[in-house]
User: What shape does this take?
Amino acid sequence: MAGAIVGLGLTLLVALVLVERRERIPTTPVKPAAEYEQSAPNIVVVMTDDQAIDTMRAMPRTRRLVGGHGVTFANSVVSFPLCCPSRATFLTGQYAHNHGVRDNGGPNGGYQALDEHETLPVWLSRTGFRTGFVGKFLNGYGKVDRAREVPPGWTDWYGLPSTAKQRPFDFELNENGKLVTYDDGEYKTEVLEDKAVSFIRDHAPGKRPFFLWVATDAPHKDAGVDVGAERNPEPAPRDRKRFDDRKPPRKQSVDEKDVSDKPRSVQRRPRLDDETRAEIDKVYVSQLESLVAVDRLVKRLVRELRSAGELDDTLVLFTSDHGFLRGHHRIDSGKSRVYEEAIRVPLLVRGPGIPRGVTEDAVVANVDLAPTILELTGATPSVEVDGRSLVPVARGEGPEERAVLLEVFERPVGRFTGVRTRHYTYAHYEGGTHELYDLERDPEQLESVHNDPRYAEVRA
Assistant: This one.
């Protein structure tokens, strides 16, 4: 038995090494199948970056046109609250420990860590779908000499390469293998909007179903911006000062007084000073303003679908890759934490088979998005997915209790694994630290009860 265990351990070790050293397979086009399911709906996904739930106040059109005509999932979480792992989960329906993208970069993270031949657009293309991408892909995509690369599975590609020249009014876009520079005052979100609308206009009248993923940079902070800048992120010019009088919600968890129950990475943090609070306020207003353009984007996509007679036959899904911390538990900004502001995201869905004007409290996760699309389209994945379809949950037929896996790798905060249920959040860190929160009694996660004997059974 001991020899078998050692042999298994060596096999796993070799497998891990091979994954880390894996050469990228050259991209090859995946042509849509000649046959396809005539009754399959179109799929349109709009995904923002770093969007906390409280910033949905800036998106009344999206709330009305998607949530008001579909389901708003009030308890939607992401398993790994970081850009690249979360986007890889959307593309695969797998948790990070299975798809292998464990960071935004490095040997175990970024675009190069994903097996791009085992993704949602590849599966949909094999089913006969036209597939379009517009916006920010996975971190590390399109670096240096690979800026013209089009990943497999995509028939129409408008991707932002990971180059230094990526600002709101000065950026490059890979348009089906050709680099186009936008430096004449065009606002990035509005350019992406035009590309997405053009895709629908070109393909919505056809009989072949289509899948469109639109991924904005907004409301992510702009890189390389001076601390003293008036806005970060930079909104569209017509949206500046729209929310000048707004302040972020002043929860008790913001600049939390007592963090002795938290991990050492939080305990070491000082209280927020006036300068940090002012920066948090500025970022909040900037994010609200930057999301107004995304709200217009959603409205225009819905309008285009309606004009083409395709709206009733299209699943429209709006979400974010993760949330964002703004001073909560003394963390001035960021994600990759177990806290609600980082793991909870907006999720609004409308389309065939989805109830209208419903709010659903069941726990769902980003790992469920791909399985939902697969069920509705009849596409077959070539990997085992970890999530489950949202369709029965939207109809109120989901399980009463569910635990979503939480996991963070390769981050300065420390590696942890845990679960999020309807009532509890639990995390176990490398080194033996724990956090356990009773969300019903303590929704702001002010007191970890991991050492409270009354919660011993819950923790176990």
